[in-house]
Design brief:
With about 450 residues, this protein is mainly beta. It has helices at about 10-20, 25-40, 40-60, 75-80; strands at about 65, 85-90, 95-100, 110, 115-120, 125, 135-140, 145-150, 150-165, 170-180, 190, 195-200, 205-210, 215-220, 225, 235-240, 240-245, 250-255, 270-275, 285, 300-305, 335-340, 345-350, 355-365, 375-380, 380-385, 390-395, 405-415, 430-435, 445-455. The chain has a 16-stranded mixed β-sheet that branches. Mean pLDDT is about 85; it is low at about 55-100.
């Protein structure tokens, strides 16, 4: 109970509070109306909450944009007290009438986690008083959370470029975005350079690579409609699952990868490792003497696929419009394992385990073209976070992550709260990527790029 709250039936109190939250159905509203008309104690309780909500609403305003702050958890009573007043009580001629009014939702609210670097309309690390339609946000590093009207919440991870087109449209030119859309947001649209993704009641993720035609679409809940740029209909509907898009067309299906999308705003995002394996090799050049900066064992190196021998696709040529980078490649060079002996792996120390922090590791894995007579077979892969000899989390597969000639992001998310036992803050932390040795019947390989580890401090999801 709140201070001064009169005694009241819990069902009546719940109905009043849901009315103030503008979340009361028609049948419940009729039930509440009858009680308020006939029960003085119910009216007293209603006036108590209406006054409290109105007073607090006048005392507090929410910032349009601010840095991420931490706060203790807010209990149910506090949530009631801070709810926005959405009803007016009028006593006329001894009869109680409740008039439901919907207060305009607050404008877009933007905040960044610690460790972020961004610009808004060209001003570095600028926090505007309000976000007007047409505002452009460039995120160099870190994660931003943008809450729009109509129950739309989005998190975008840099590097990224977004534009707030209007209350129901967000333009994502590059980057990774997660979108959670409530019932009022039905029809919310994400516009990329290559397609429109229209919400039909969903949680979904979109990943757009700069200068590349392919777009990843991951639907975690509900469904979306994918349309051609500039269209207002006529697309196809995608339900639970993930696909790689070229314009409004599906290139191939993907494994749904929720770990690779931010779903809540951490207090801070810290890059512990970002390896792009760029060593200046030109088209077709191979260097098989290990990988500089890594302990690998034998049978590892780097190369620059020219689109003729290994992957057989024109856009891998360095002089092509894609500059030799496709499907998320960090540059023109890739790392590889070839006929690797047991024990071969990429291993690096990346610090120590911290409390209240999640760790996300990711890597791009390639699948070479299926060329008759060559006899190359995919050797399987394992991506791990480890502490000494203890495996903390891993993602493993003996199957190619995509069809021949493609590249695919794979990732894992590890929360120290999930164990294993004996791992405490201060325990050493390593990343490890290795071939499984599962290939049979030919020369065994694993190609990879863009190996990253990010610490998400204070993540609540």
């Amino acid at each position: 109970m709140t201070p001064g709250e009169p005694p009241v039936d819990p069902q009546l109190r719940e109905a009043i509070l849901r009315l103030l939250d503008d979340d009361l159905g028609d049948e419940e509203f009729a039930w509440l109306q009858e009680h308020l008309e006939n029960d003085p104690a119910a009216r007293e309780c209603y006036f108590h909450y209406a006054w409290l909500e109105s007073a607090l609403d006048s005392a507090f305003t929410a910032p349009i944009a601010r840095p991420k702050l931490t706060a203790p958890a807010v209990g149910r009573t506090a949530r009631f007290a801070l709810a926005v007043a959405a009803a007016v009580a009028i006593l006329i001629a001894g009869t109680m009438f409740v008039i439901r009014t919907t207060r305009p939702e607050p404008g877009p609210a933007l905040q960044f986690c610690g460790g972020s670097a961004w610009s808004i309309d060209g001003m570095d690390n600028h926090v505007p008083g309000e976000l007007a339609h047409g505002t452009r946000i460039e995120i160099t590093e870190g994660i931003a959370e943008l809450r729009l009207r109509n129950q739309v919440r989005t998190l975008v991870e840099g590097p990224a470029s977004i534009t707030l087109v209007d209350d129901r449209t967000l333009q994502l030119d590059r980057g990774t975005g997660y979108f959670e859309v409530g019932p009022k947001g039905h029809g919310f649209t994400v516009v990329t350079p290559y397609q429109r993704v229209v919400d039909l009641g969903t949680e979904f993720g979109v990943r757009v690579w700069e200068g590349q035609d392919e777009t990843e679409l991951h639907v975690f809940k509900g469904r979306v409609e994918v349309q051609a740029p500039g269209a207002t209909g006529g697309g196809f509907r995608q339900e639970l699952g993930a696909v790689l898009l070229d314009g409004p067309e599906i290139v191939r299906t993907l494994a749904v990868d929720p770990a690779s999308f931010p779903r809540s705003l951490p207090d801070r995002a810290e890059i512990l490792l970002r390896e792009d394996f760029e060593h200046g090799l030109i088209d077709g050049e191979v260097r098989s003497s290990g990988i500089e900066g890594w302990w690998t064992g034998r049978d590892a190196g780097i190369f620059n696929p020219n689109g003729i021998k290994w992957y057989v696709r024109d856009d891998l040529a360095d002089n092509s419009p894609s500059a030799g980078m496709v499907q998320g490649m960090a540059g023109t060079n890739l790392g590889f394992f070839f006929n690797a002996e047991p024990g071969t792996a990429l291993v690096r120390e990346i610090g120590f385990v911290k409390s209240n922090t999640r760790y996300r590791a990711s890597v791009l894995v390639g699948c070479r073209a299926d060329r008759p007579g060559i006899g190359e077979v995919f050797d399987g892969y394992t991506l791990q976070l480890v502490s000494g000899e203890v495996v903390l989390g891993e993602v493993r597969s003996d199957d190619p992550p995509g069809p021949p000639g493609s590249f695919t992001h794979v990732s894992l998310l590890w929360n120290p709260k999930a164990g294993p036992a004996g791992i405490t803050p201060g325990s050493p932390l390593q990343v490890r990527f290795a071939p499984n040795g599962s290939g049979r019947g030919g020369n065994r390989y694993v190609d990879f790029d863009k190996l990253e580890v990010i610490a998400l401090d204070g993540t609540r999801d």
